[in-house]
Design goal:
The complex is a heterodimer of chains A (291) and B (313). Chain A is mainly alpha-helical. Chain A contains eleven helices and no strands. The chains are: A mainly alpha (291), B mainly alpha (313).
């Protein structure tokens, strides 16, 4: 490949990259990682200390606006919103992490097998995968939750199973397009075994789309957990999650808007952090993005 | 080409069968007597016995599936436990509400996001690109139900421009119907613009690195022609797949938005069915949404070679 005259300068995008944008660590990684670290710290803090007992009902101080005592106000039962957000952070992040790990491990294995072996293995695997994929993620999670009932590890299982087919599809897709490329052929020509070619040359090149996907999936998992809890099918009350806090804020949207604003803001910040960090990670990991 | 289409269609049939099998299995996975689940706690012994016979509970699981599947094929999805209505007309009516919102929102989002993504990729690493990517990432990070609540708070409660609760169908009063549908559609469009823009930008950047783009530039084509005639088509292919996936995921996940805006869509119907343990309705919703999802993806797959000629037929 290296002896071939490069057409890269012509194919390069018109705009010249700025130096500041190419610095390592890039701004988005820095912002994303900082935000994420802050949220994780908050979640860990919630494990050992909260300003108030997040479950203690105090009807005398219900629906109080944010103040020096209750930083983010109190809810309809007089529970401290900030304390509940702290323990909610732990629940949401942990559930998402477990669900995504499950999906990535199972999905990569199946996807690489299908894409590389092709033929009947591929057709059979993809038939089952398509059937699973044909349940939109949250719909399958809904179905599973309907059977096993609302519980914390039920959600992990439901989301993990629901996201596995997307991983399979993406991994298989990139394996299929990669195996047609010259450098894969070259690897075979110089006598590398199929397994070596697969692990050394195909797998790293699947990482980029997989990273983007895993990032999005972490976001989806966080979002789906919130959505399921919002619908009342997620982590059951009185345990606090950002989703069920948002759900219980709905009747008070006109009179106590802070109840709806802060849990949503936390979900939003967490998703933003994950997306920014994932983008930076992708730029770093994708061999084609390196200059 | 015909062979490609037949092959894709051929692959969709077993998928649909497998889906039916899974939806059928769902009600068998719930602990308890299926006939009791179907009829509810108040059923008398006689109708329970009748239901057991109808479901073929004394037969093997295979026979039970065949009995159920035959009914499904003839459009008989059973009756709702709570309202005694026939399931099929009920879910079709609710489905129309959701499908309209989702289709309009995804169409709007694609029309906005693809040119924006192309522009950002063309100006990669410029201040404009940075701004567009940041906006798209921010939009992607806002949960639809939170955005919906905020918009409802701003335009419904504070400004009082739009109604907060309720729904009017298009047949009754188009203008009023629109006033109820504006916020859900805007919410969905905004959220999906983020995802599609990022995808369009990423795939355009990939395409712009390829040598056929270099060739197009080398033969002296204008940047406009390079972008719109050569880059867009190939860059749109992955985006096209994403649009198909989004469409299905929105149909599956629209329950939250319908909860926020109190719309009588299929998502809300399904969640209510879960709470009411109304399994025939739940089965019907799952079956309908997944069938539609399969057909949408089939359509996307069939059109894929149109955008990316590199895919072998």
């Amino acid at each position: 490949m290296s002896s071939k005259p490069s057409l890269a300068p012509l194919a390069a995008p018109a705009a010249t990259p700025r130096k500041a944008l190419r610095a390592w660590p890039p701004a988005n990684a820095l912002i994303g990682a900082t935000l994420l670290a802050l949220l994780v710290l908050l979640a860990l803090l919630g494990l050992v200390w909260t300003p108030f007992d997040p479950l203690r009902i105090d009807l005398l101080s219900r629906l109080q606006a944010p103040s020096a005592l209750h930083w983010l106000g109190t809810d309809e039962f007089g529970r401290d919103v900030f304390s509940r957000l702290l323990i909610g952070a732990r629940t949401s992040l942990w559930i998402s992490l477990l669900a995504v790990s499950f999906a990535v491990c199972a999905g990569t294995l199946i996807g690489m097998l299908a894409g590389y072996l092709r033929g009947w293995t591929d057709r059979l695997l993809m038939m089952c995968n398509d059937a699973l994929l044909a349940f939109p993620g949250i719909l399958m999670a809904l179905g599973i939750m309907a059977i096993i009932g609302a519980s914390q590890y039920g959600i992990v299982l439901a989301l993990g199973i629901a996201y596995t087919p997307s991983v399979v599809r993406v991994v298989r897709g990139s394996v299929l397009s990669l195996r047609e490329l010259e450098f894969i052929e070259a690897s075979r020509v110089i006598g590398n075994s199929e397994l070596y070619t697969m692990l050394r040359h195909i797998a790293p090149n699947c990482l980029a789309p997989l990273c983007v996907l895993a990032t999005s999936m972490f976001g989806w998992a966080l979002l789906s957990e919130s959505a399921l809890s919002f619908l009342g099918l997620g982590v059951p009350p009185p345990a606090a999650t950002w989703g069920n806090m948002l759900a219980s804020s709905r009747p008070y949207i006109a009179s106590a808007s802070w109840l709806g604003i802060f849990p949503g803001l936390f979900i939003c910040l967490a998703l933003l952090a994950i997306n920014l960090f994932g983008d930076a990670l992708r730029d770093r990991l994708d061999p084609r993005m390196r200059k | 080409m015909l062979r490609f289409i037949l092959q894709k269609l051929g692959m969709a049939v077993p998928t649909l069968l497998l889906i039916s099998l899974m939806v059928f299995a769902l009600i068998r996975l719930v602990p308890g007597d299926p006939a009791l689940l179907m009829l509810g706690d108040m059923a008398d012994p006689q109708s329970l016995a009748d239901m057991r016979r109808t479901l073929g509970l004394d037969h093997s699981l295979v026979t039970q599936f065949l009995i159920w599947f035959k009914a499904v094929l003839s459009g008989d999805l059973g009756f709702s436990i709570s309202t005694r209505e026939a399931v099929l007309p009920l879910i079709l009516e609710r489905f129309a509400v959701s499908a309209g919102i989702v289709l309009v929102a995804v169409l709007l989002a694609t029309l906005i996001a693809v040119p924006v993504g192309l522009l950002a990729a063309w100006k990669q690493n410029s201040a404009l690109d940075l701004g567009l990517v940041m906006s798209a990432t921010l939009l992607l990070s806002i949960p639809s139900f939170w955005l919906g609540l905020l918009l409802l708070y701003a335009f419904g409660i504070k400004l009082g421009w739009l109604p907060v609760v309720g729904y009017v169908s298009f047949a009754q009063d188009p203008w009023q119907a629109l006033s109820y549908l504006v916020l859900p559609i805007v919410t969905l469009t905004l959220v999906e613009v983020g995802a599609i823009t990022r995808m369009a930008r990423a795939s355009t950047i990939e395409v712009l690195r390829l040598e056929y783009i270099a060739h197009a530039r080398a033969k002296g084509l204008s940047e406009r022609a390079v972008l719109w005639r050569h880059a867009l088509r190939n860059a749109f292919a992955p985006t096209w797949t994403l649009v198909g996936l989004i469409l299905g995921n929105l149909l599956g996940g629209i329950a939250v938005l319908e909860t926020v805006f109190t719309l009588p869509g299929i998502g809300r119907l399904m969640v209510d069915a879960i709470f009411a343990r109304d399994y025939p309705v739940l089965q019907g919703c799952l079956l309908l949404i997944t069938f539609v999802y399969v057909l949408v993806n089939l359509f996307v797959d069939l059109l894929y070679p149109l955008f990316d000629p590199r895919v072998k037929l």
